[in-house]
Structures are given as structure tokens and as C-alpha cells.
Amino acid sequence: MASIPEFYAGKKILISGATGFMGKVLLEKLLRSCPEVRVVYVLVRAKGGQDPQDRIANMLSCKLFDRLQAEQPTFAQKVVAVASDLTEAELGLSAGDQKLLTEEVEVVFHCAASVRFNEPLREAMRLNVVSTQQMLTLAHRMKMLQVFLHVSTAYCNCDRELIDELIYTPAIDYQRLLEALSWMDDDLVSALTPKLIGRRPNTYTFTKALAEHVIQRESGNLNVAIVRPSIVGASWMEPFPGWIDNFNGPSGIFIAAGKGILRTMRASNDAVADLIPVDVVVNATLAAAWFSGSQRSSRSKHILVYNCTTGGINPFHWGEVEYHVISTFKRNPLEQAFRRPHVNLTSNHLINQYWIAVSHKAPAFLYDLYLRLIGREPRMMKTISRLHKAMMVLEFFTSQSWVWNTDNIAALQNHMSPDDRKVFNFDVRQLHWAEYMESYCLGTKKYVLNEELSGLPAARKHLNKLRNIRYTFNAIMAIMVWRVFIARSQMARNIWYFVVSLCFKFLSYFRASSTMR
Q1: 15 pairs with which residues across the strands?
Q2: Paired strand residues for 385
Q3: Residue 324 in domain
Q4: Are 408 and 493 in a shared domain?
């Protein structure tokens, strides 16, 4: 077969979701590592008063594309914004744009989806299921199409413990559900949602499973592949370590821990944290489309599914995540931290609720009281409330582990040439978690919070100040406990004096030993 860059050379490609986190990295990697790509059409809607062209221009000017800009100064000329809205009929495409895409596009990457876990079911169906239907309808009209690649999620079948690389038939038919949603009111939909999603934790995983079933039933003779990443995190190596640009998933939790706001979290230390770097997912995605596109002449109607995960190959546990996040932010603190970084992980609901009350709500209440006294608007309780909602969403994924079959991923690597395996590396056996987590945490500092590393000395000084405040507070509390409880009991005083005298004897012994030396 041709190499991956040779396969994409001269190709006209369509990407949905190119303004999202993974879509941006996919676009950058495609243009940088396959420089002979002819053109990349990106579906984008107007937003925030910006038309699609302005949005794409602003996106291409961000730091993510700096390396590409240095290597290929004219790369932006290959990127064509196409006005579209995936929630509208025919994807909101004009007649002219439909004609353009159906006559020219050879490869489709369907990355667009709602990543909000708690999206109302009707909206999640519209964004994740109906949009996939419409993308397939458009793909069937494409005269030059060689491969359609759909980005799903490894958790779409999280109601199972063992997940193979195949499409599972859902308990609910998506067409009947769409028909029912057309006449149900919002209150009825909300009431029925828990019953409909069953053992899945949210509408995101449920609708992504239905989207896969849409592809299975409606792809027809299209050449289709599906990539299922697990928890997508910051970049590992490309275009540089630690790239992340959002608070989604674990990133917001890491930042809250670094700020000292997050002090407790319900999670199992031994559960596998199936993090996957975004550049690993992108490399696997480009390779999967290459392989399916190269095999199109001999293909069967079997849809290749790739579980892009780390847990079965290079496992990393939530207890280890907590350790590396806290240690990194102690060495490289975030600016204006609320408290020193420290997090207790517990799988016990009651213990977690206790620590939430003591370590989250009580300090937040006192801080808001202080803000009111100095005439400023209180904000910490609102922050804590948002944090708790985010933690509740993640509890399902931080409290248990899954087993994913990754035979297709391994086979895909074996089909690649040594050069392609190097340029499009998705072998997570090479991933060193300690280094990756440090890059991830520093990435949240630099690219999400826009904090310069030159501010580290001041941040460390602030962290030392917080440590001194904590020691002073603990000393005051110890004195108060002694005055209230110990000073009133003769037995307690005797024990106290015995402990103190014993400490003094040990100190005297060590001082005498050092003097003799």
C-alpha cells in the first residue's frame, strides 16, 4: 500500500467538528504531516457575531498552528470554511456548497458531536444521532468518496465490562425514539430519560451508541471506519507536549486541584484512568482512514472499529493521577491558588460527603463571608457548586474499570511501514505517564489559564504563604483544643506532660549524640 502521506496527497477532505479540541489537532496534523493534501473543507457555523470564515481565520492563528505556520507559511490557503449547521436540515448547507462537496470530497472525518454529558436527551439526539444521519446522507451523494471515518467514544458501551471492537445493537431503535421525541414535551422526555439510557450514566454515551447503530444500518456500500477514543487529554508529543485548550473532562478537575479548590473526590485509587493523549487519537484516526481507504477495492461490508484506549496496554490508575497532578502543581503552582494543592480520593459516598462539607463548602462559605465584609461580590460557593456538578458527571468513570479489546488497533500498527509508525505514532506502550502528566498539568497552566512560566517564583511564594497560614491555623486550633479539653482533665494533662517530656528527652539525646561526634 501507499504510505499515509502518499494516500492523502492530492486528496480533497471534509472535516466536521474542526473547531473542537480534537478536530483542530486533526486538521493541524493532517496538513503538517501530509503536506501534499489538496484542500480541507471544514464545516463551521456562525457564532458569537463571527461568520465561518472569521472563525476559521482566528482558529488558524492560535498557538496550536505555530509549528505548521513555520514549516508551511501558506497552509491556510488549503483550509476552506463551509457555512453549515449540523442541527439544521441538510446540515444547513447551501445548494452551491452541497454541489461542491458531493463532487469533490474524497475523505470524510466526522468529528462533530456534543461532548456535554448532561445534555437534554432531545438535544443530544439532534447533535449526535441526527447529524450523523445527515452526514451519511451527504456522503452517499459524494461521487469521489473513498472513506468515511466516524469518531465515537470508547464509553458508548460502558454498560458492559468487556467491550469488543464491534458495533453492539442497542435496546432502543433510534428511529422509533426520534419519532417519539417529535411529539413528547420536554417534561415527559426528562422523566423518561433515566429509563431510556438504562445502565449508561448520561445522554452522551447513550446517543453515541445510537450514532454507531445509525452508521451500521445506513452506511450501505460506503467504506466506513469508527475510532473510539477513551478520555481524551492533552497532547503527548505533537505539535508540542501538553497542548490543551479547554476545561472539559479531567482538565477542569486538574485545574481545580492545582488551585486548591478541589480537596476531595469520589474515585477508586485502583480504578484505571483510561486517559488517551489527543495526538495519539489523531494519529490512529488518520491511519484508520488510510487503511480503510487503501483497502476499498477488496472491502466487505464489515465496518472496522478501533478501540483507542490505554488501560489494557499501559494501565494508569486514578490514585497515580492524583499523585502526579498534586506533585506537579506543588512544584509548578498555579497563580493565586486558593489553598495548597491536596486531594483525598475515596470510594465511600459518606466519607466523600463529609470532606465536601469540611473541605469545600465550609471554606467557601467563610471566604464568601469575607468578600461580603470587604464589599466584594461572593463567588466561591458558585465555583464549588459548578465543581461538584463536574465531579458528579465524572464519578461513574473514576470509580470503575473496563476491558477493551484492541486487536484492530494492533493490526493497524502492523500494516503500517516503519516510517509511518514513527510519524503517526499511536503506540501507547511508549507513553511515560509521569512525564505526560507533568506536561498535561503545565499545559493547563500555559494554554488554558494563560499563565506564563515566568510567574512561577511569585506563585511559589504565594504557595509558601498559604502553607504558613495553614500551620498557624493548625497551631491555633491545637491550642484551643488543649484549652477546652486537655486543661480541664487531670488525666489528659498527665498524658500531655508525659508526651512532651518524652519528646524533650529524645531531643536532648540526639543533641548530646551530635556533640560527642
Answers
A1: 42, 109
A2: none
A3: no
A4: no
Give counts: helices (H), strands (E), the chain: 21, 13
Structural domain contains residue 391: no
Omega of the bond prior to 239 within 30 degrees of 0, cis? yes
C-alpha cell at 62: 492560535
Residues 6+ positions from 134 with CB-CB distance below 8 Å = 86, 89, 90, 91
For residue 40, give the C-alpha cell: 480541507
Instruction: Give the separation between CA 142 and CA 234, rounded to whole angstroms.
Output: 34
The pTM for the full model equals: 0.89
Sequence letter at residue 469: I
Domains: count for the chain: 2
Selection from 221, 237, 231, 242 nearest residue 136 by Cα: 221
How many Å apart are CA 441 and CA 34, to the nearest integer?
30
pLDDT of 14 > 90? The answer is: yes
If asked whether residues 287 and 208 sit together in one domain, one would say yes
Which residue reads 492533552 in cell numbers?
234
Alpha-carbon gap, residue 337 to 111, rounded angstroms: 35
- The position carrying cell 497532547 is 235
Domain containing 166: what range?
4-238+273-313+401-425
348 burial via Cβ count (<10 Å: 0-12, 13-18, 19+)? exposed
Task: Give the tens place of pLDDT for each residue, 33-89.
Answer: 999 999 999 999 888 778 889 999 999 999 999 999 999 999 999 999 999 998 888
**Helix/strand/coil for 42:** strand
- Indicate the residue type of 74: T
Do 420 and 463 have their domain in common?
Answer: no
Q: Beta strands of 202-351 (E only): which ranges?
A: 224-229, 231-233, 264-266, 275-277, 304-308, 344-346
Q: Compute the distance between CA of residue 172 and CA of residue 154 in angstroms, rounded to an integer.
A: 19
d(CA 378, CA 369): 7
State the Cα–Cα distance between residues 8 and 423, nearest whole angstrom: 14
